[in-house]
Amino acid sequence: DFALLGTNDVTPHWFDAAQSWLRPTAEGWLALGRETAVHPLWQSLLAEWEVVAQTDAYTLYRLPAVAETAVPLAEFSSDEGKIALLEGEVGAETAVAPGAAFTLATRWRQESAPQPVKLFVHVVDEAGQIVAQWDGLGVIWQGWREGDTLWQAHTLTLPAATTPGVYQVWVGVYHPTSGVRWQTAVSDRFLLGSITVTDK
């Protein structure tokens, strides 16, 4: 809408606010549908931005330019792409009962042209076996452009028969069709930390 934006030169970045949040580095706008579900983790972000317009269909926010300076925890690469993991921490103090769900959030930066990708989270036991996992991407990959920061919520449910103990939590990036994982300098996944599975 030229009257609101002052330009017709607009590049859309689509994402599912119920599970993710996409933030370009350049100044821009966020059009949020009135019926759009927003994950509780992102609700506080909305309060920081200026409301430009409100209609029966959506609310339009103005987003200031940001300079992302976080040092990556890890960088995942393929032949043609690179994505940096900026944040995502889970400690052994995160206690989860068998059969229960827990949510963690990660933050990523696109450092190349968009590539078809998905993210994964694996909860792994002492024997290296996956006991719970999450796979997905809360943004249309074509719209995750170079420099954009993505917050992604991951909700995992432990099997009811999970044995109490400490489990490692790993994350990574892979091609959605071939299943080939992107690589870091030392591996094809990154250890975020661990969770403790309680006995009740």
Quaternary = single chain
Tally of domains? 2
Order of helices and strands: HEEHEEEEEEEEEEE
The share of residues in helices is: under 10%
Report the major sheet: 5 strands, antiparallel
Say how many strands there are: 13
Q: Quickly count the helices.
A: 2
Rounded to the nearest angstrom, the distance between the terminal CA atoms is 54 Å
- Poorly predicted spans: none
Instruction: Look at the structure and give the CATH class of the largest domain.
Output: Mainly Beta
Query: Which topology of the largest domain does CATH recognise?
Result: Immunoglobulin-like
Shape: globular
Gyration radius, to the nearest Å?
18 Å
Please indicate the percent range of residues in DSSP E strands (runs of 2 or more): 35-45%
**CATH architecture term of the largest domain:** Sandwich
How would you describe the overall organization of this protein?
The structure is a single chain. With 200 residues, this protein is mainly beta. The protein folds into 2 domains: 2-63, no CATH class; 74-197, Immunoglobulin-like (Sandwich), CATH 2.60.40. It has helices at residues 2-5, 43-46, and strands spanning 20-23, 28-33, 50-54, 58-63, 74-77, 82-87, 95-96, 101-110, 118-124, 130-136, 149-157, 165-174, 190-197. Strands 1-11-8-6-5 form a 5-stranded antiparallel beta sheet, with no helix packed on it. A 5-stranded mixed beta sheet has the order 7-13-12-9-10, with no helix packed on it. The chain has a 3-stranded antiparallel beta sheet with strand order 2-4-3, with no helix packed on it. It starts with a helix and ends with a strand.
